[in-house]
Amino acid sequence: MPAAVPSSEPTIPTVxxxxxxxxxxxxxxxxxxxxxxxxxKQPFVIDWRGLLVGRAGAVVRPASTEEVSKVVRLCHEHxxxxxxxxxxxxxxxGATPWPxxxxxxxxxxxxxxxLDVDAVGYVMxxxxxxxxxxLQETAxxxxxxxPLSLGAQGSCMIxxxxxxxxxxxxxxxxxxxxxxxxxxxxxxxxxxxxxxxxALKKDNTGYDLKHLFMGAEGTLGIITKAVLKLWPAxxxxxxxxLAIRDPRAxxxxxxxxxxxxxxxxxxxxxxxxxAIDMVLRHIPGTQDPLKADTPWYxxxxxxxxxxxxxxxAGMSEKMAPxxxxxxxxxxxxxxxIAHTGNQSRNMWRIREAVAEASRAxxxxxxxxxxxxxxxxxxxxxxxxxxxxDILPTIRPYPLGHIGDGNLxxxxxxxxxxxxxxxxxxxxxxxxxxxxxxxxxxxxISAEHGIGMDKLDELSHYxxxxxxxxxxxxxxxxxxxxxxxxxxxxxx
Length: 491
Prior knowledge:
By secondary structure, this protein is of the alpha+beta class.
């Protein structure tokens, strides 16, 4: 569900792949690393939502950093554009080629090895094509915890997560993807390899280059390996589902929860009744954890690395009296604590399946915004009113990671309205939402990035100074503009 569509396709390099170049690419990656058939290319040129359809002369799937380097160097020598791609689960079109793209999509999926797990040092070295859930499971097998967690974790890849500085449901406690990284290996737009795979928490030797590439969405280089931070595995987890008075109550509950849990709040997710009902309609196997007469719910999870011991209060024993106090204060209207793993998984499945359910529901618009945590209720009220003033029959279903100020301000089109008709309202709604969030000192993209969907919005809301700095960096590293051209910035 695009928040906005660029007013026009940006100027991108359109040097075509020649038969000679295809032969050279095949010599580098082998037959199984090169896809030329139009049908076989389709999964790589259409975005996850099915809304954006691009083109590519070929899909190249290298199996090593050396092969990535050789492919990029070849493209650099010929001026051929490259679209780096991980699991292709992004929501802003950052990994999708433009329709005018004549170069390659470079897929990292074959580079999927876990190179090292240092459980004593709490770090893991991995290739960019590793699926996030595989890395979570690998860490768990070593009694460690990789906190990056999001709905697409069964198919998204760590290189894409880092290139987009992914957020997810654990940001409240552990930070965004960039906070989970100690070192990177990156192939630059000319094919050179920067080896920054250092497992150091302290390294004060000039510019911290790894942060250039995290969040750059593949426009400055291709992340090929990473050193990730690990944490102790949670041993005592308590998940609860709360019917709450309103978003202001959610903030007050979270504020009190930090102390009551002894600073063990892992996640705090605000959900609207409309979003919950949509998931229950479209996602088989999900069950409503709690029916209550309120439009607002909270998924609250506390976790500790300390195992429960006889005679000591664990997370659930601390959560129960805390919720009783919140009920007495009128913030919580009803609550249920998960007593089994299945109950907890059902709660999380509802939260994580919203994007999947919304795609099944029909046409919609979604905004990934952030604002100071204390101003979230104000933004919800003002933003909802502004959108309903434009299209009174639109259906709001806001939800988000309220603990870190990130709200997914989402709407389904009016019943019976098709995507083409809804698109007629999109520009006005987008301007109203983004003007409001900017006036409140917030961000028009909290965790999903810019890609192609927010290309014009970034240029509208960021200052000339900021844009000039970003363009200077891009031109210095990629003067030919071959690395994911037409994403993030118009040059």
